[in-house]
Specification:
This protein is an alpha/beta fold and 506 residues long. The chain is built from 14 helices and 20 strands.
Length: 506
């Protein structure tokens, strides 16, 4: 359990593979529509009276529709029956939602211990892949941000223990389940950072969180302060932070467990700890959740945390420019010209397009590592939210194979991404009048694409070629959870599971 302000904020349940049904804990039957409950392997562990009771209540005819049923058997054993789609419609996406539904249903019935069958969640995947998915999804469904709430007298209502029963060899699945659980824990840790109010999660606070994560998981963290940022010539970071009393930080995370000859992957996370929009102030309805505008930075920290805990033998660098964007007498203004670390100038046409301005410096800083791939993660544009709704992040990439791989892994992890173009024709829209590039487009249209195209200008070398393969993830659509996905309200921590799995394979 982790502590914040003296209160427990993450409850990590016990999750283990088991060979036989324990005498304690509610039994969970996940029944596909059209399949008789009589065929479920768990029935053989029940007494005749319990079996007859279940058959009477359910008519032993299988599940009907998508619903939950809670029973207390004659023996006193508690049971959950979760109805899911028929086998031919039970996709990987449905399996992910079903795993989360089990936890949500268990919590609603105040069940501290449950037992599930791994095979109930298989959907054209191997047992190992299913175990990894279960480990992650059960953990993230058991999360709720309660750090600032008064604890109820009866305590918080979390599932404390899940036993996973399987017909397959346990040893072959144990590591997969444990790895999935680690990823789920790091997703939840990122959600804590994003959910923490901006008054507490300042640039210095985010830097401290990175240092603590490094100590816990085992990676090196270096924090650059305003003086060092100035020395590097990061005019974008300095410009955006000018209006705030909170000074900027530039977080550098180095995880080097691969071969010395292996070029690293660099992950860049947007770390705007609160975004008012600056002098282009956001409207009331858009400003409330802007303490989560550092979700890309939180994800970066805990992707590295997951890789370290899983002892992945790769070289990965994390970069997080951390600022607060506030309106004041010292704020940067529309019309200002900022000189970025690359020497390219940014014409500020909208102070609420600040994320790309600080990322421009971070993408230039990434070049010193001679990376084989750079991925940036940012709650960058409302336009991505308009284009995709709240079910998928937007992905832009200069590498078609990498994009395809991330889309496929998104389906496995529930961290869905969908591509948008990087066509050079859009570059006309971000040309500056008095500077090299404008930080917002010339019209209302295509804002997500214009943001990505702007960032691409800062991955290029002096000859105008891409210096390294690059992916931009606009996670604004997935910043918060939505109804129907069985996750607690608040931050969703997109990209942690996606990029952890991608980097394990890449």
């Amino acid at each position: 359990m982790d502590e914040f302000g003296g209160q427990t904020i993450i409850f990590q349940m016990k999750l283990e593979l088991i060979k036989k049904l324990p005498t304690e804990g509610a039994i969970v039957f996940v029944i596909k529509e059209g399949v008789s409950l009589k065929t479920h392997p768990f029935l053989k562990f029940l007494g005749e009276e319990d079996k007859k009771y279940i058959e009477t209540v359910t008519n032993a005819s299988g599940a009907s529709g998508i619903s939950n049923k809670f029973l207390i058997l004659p023996s006193g054993r508690k049971t959950l029956i979760i109805s899911v789609p028929a086998k031919d419609k039970f996709t990987g996406r449905k399996a992910i939602l079903s795993a989360r539904r089990v936890i949500v249903a268990a919590r609603s019935e105040k069940l501290a211990q449950i037992v599930v069958l791994l095979e109930d969640f298989q959907a054209r995947t191997s047992p190992q892949e299913t175990a990894t998915m279960l480990g992650t999804q059960l953990e993230i469904a058991n999360f709720e941000f309660v750090a600032y709430k008064t604890a109820p007298k009866e305590g918080w209502n979390f599932v404390e223990e899940v036993g996973v029963f399987s017909k397959y060899s346990l040893e072959s699945l144990r590591k997969a389940l444990e790895a999935g659980k680690v990823v789920g824990e790091e997703v939840n840790a990122a959600r804590v950072l994003s959910n923490t109010p901006g008054g507490d999660m300042t640039p210095a606070g985010l830097a401290e969180a990175a240092l603590q994560a490094g100590k816990k998981s085992g990676f090196k963290v270096t924090i650059l302060d305003e003086k060092e940022i100035t020395k590097l010539g990061m005019g974008g970071v300095l410009g955006v932070s000018k209006g705030s009393v909170e000074k900027p930080r530039f977080i550098v995370i180095e995880y080097l467990r691969g071969k010395k000859s292996e070029k690293p992957v660099v992950i860049v996370g947007k770390g705007v700890t609160f975004d008012t929009g600056g002098l282009n102030l956001k409207p009331t309805q858009a400003i409330y959740e802007m303490h989560m505008d550092m979700s890309g930075g939180a994800a970066t920290i805990h992707i590295l945390g997951a890789l370290a805990r899983l002892n992945v033998k790769k070289n990965v660098i994390g970069l997080v420019p951390a600022v607060e964007n506030m309106p004041s007498g010292s704020s940067f203004r529309p019309g200002d010209l900022l000189k970025s670390m690359s020497g390219k100038t940014i014409e500020v046409t909208n102070t609420d397009a600040e994320g790309r301005v600080i990322l421009a410096d971070a993408l230039e800083y990434a070049k010193r590592y001679n990376p084989r791939l750079v991925v940036d993660i940012a709650t960058l544009t409302g336009a991505a939210l308009v284009a995709l709704g709240q079910r998928a992040s937007a992905i832009f990439s200069t590498s078609a194979p990498v994009e395809r791989s991330l889309r496929a892994i998104g389906e496995e992890t529930g961290d869905f991404v969908w591509p948008l173009p990087l066509w050079e024709e859009y570059e006309e829209d971000i040309k500056g009048m008095f500077g090299d590039f404008a930080n917002s487009g010339k019209s209302r249209w295509g804002g997500a694409i214009e943001g990505a195209v702007f960032l691409r200008q800062f991955i290029r070398d002096k000859e105008g070629n891409d210096a390294y393969p690059w992916v931009h993830l606009d996670i604004a659509p997935r910043m918060t959870s939505v109804d129907g996905e069985f996750l607690a309200k608040g931050a969703a921590a997109p990209s942690v599971a996606l990029l952890t799995q991608f980097l394990r394979e890449y």
